Amino acid sequence: MSVWQVMAAHVSLVPSWSAASSSRLSPYHAAACLKTKDVQSTLRRNYYCKRASPRHSSPDEPRPASTSSSSGKTENEKPLKRSIENAKERTKAVREKVRSSLTNLTPRENIYNLPNFLTVSRLIAAPVTAYFLVHDHYKWALGLFAYAGFTDLVDGWLARKWKLQTVAGSVIDPMADKALMIILTVTLAIKGALPAYLATLILGRDASLAIAAIYYRYASLPAPKTMGRYWDFSLPSAEVHPTTVSKYNTFLQLVLIGSALALPVVTAGGEYAGLLHGLGLTDAALNSSMHYYQWLVAATTAWSGLSYAYLKDAVTIIGTDEALKAKQGARGRAIIGVTFGSMVAVATWLAFTVDEERKQEQKEQSEIQRPQ
Q1: Where is this region: Disordered (predicted)?
Q2: pTM of the shown model
Q3: Number of domains in the chain
């Protein structure tokens, strides 16, 4: 067959190919088209088998991996996936960079130094002293209390001399003092060594300052405000400056607690009682002096608590927004004024009711026990 005949046969088959392309070829016809030998059937075989191979292949024959359309779709999806992955990587890198920069911007300080260790030891000594006091080991309680007072003086001196002053130390130091004062005040009040009104004033002042400190810490803590960062004292947010009257009041309270611990020791007999009696100090004189001294401590405690409510420089909030700092300071002072003012009212009521009744009962018992 000549070339021209082949071309004519090819042209004559075009309509039939178009019709066949829209229909489905059965497996029998697909197998039969492979057995043709003439040129015209060969052309038909090549066309039909190529059209039928994607859909009408035998179940035993493996299907092709992908068609031209699916391969084009896959090729179009690859750049999109690659761009999405690149965007995720860039976002992650930017996030890590911002996080590291925020961490570097937040100031930290070294809190592991000798003054802070002494302060923490004083904090631990408070419950141990109360344990000795409850079990009437007054000498041990008095000795541990003396250690706490000594460390209170030494840690501040060391911090100033060696330039180890930290914001964490300015927070932990009054915390240790207040823990010692609160625990021993409660213990002595339960044992009857301190009147109820004085214990209410001391505890009310410390409670109002503690509530204000919680607010100051949360309000001034740099973002993010998390529980871990809240208790991380290496992240300074606010600094407390004890007022002048507060310093004197702290000293007077320590002397009061020490006197209450020492009074059972010196009045229990022995060499200490003989020494005091030799100086002309009787038990009645010691008790009377203790009574007036308690009123002095009550007055300074009330003055000290109210000073934190009206002095603006008692607490310094760390930050750059002056308007926000002023608003936070006003709220903190208002918290102190409301809470401590209510405690003063309760203490006044106790002083003129409960304590007076208790004194009258003690006076009647002493008259009954007096020998005729």
Answers
A1: 50-92
A2: 0.59
A3: 2
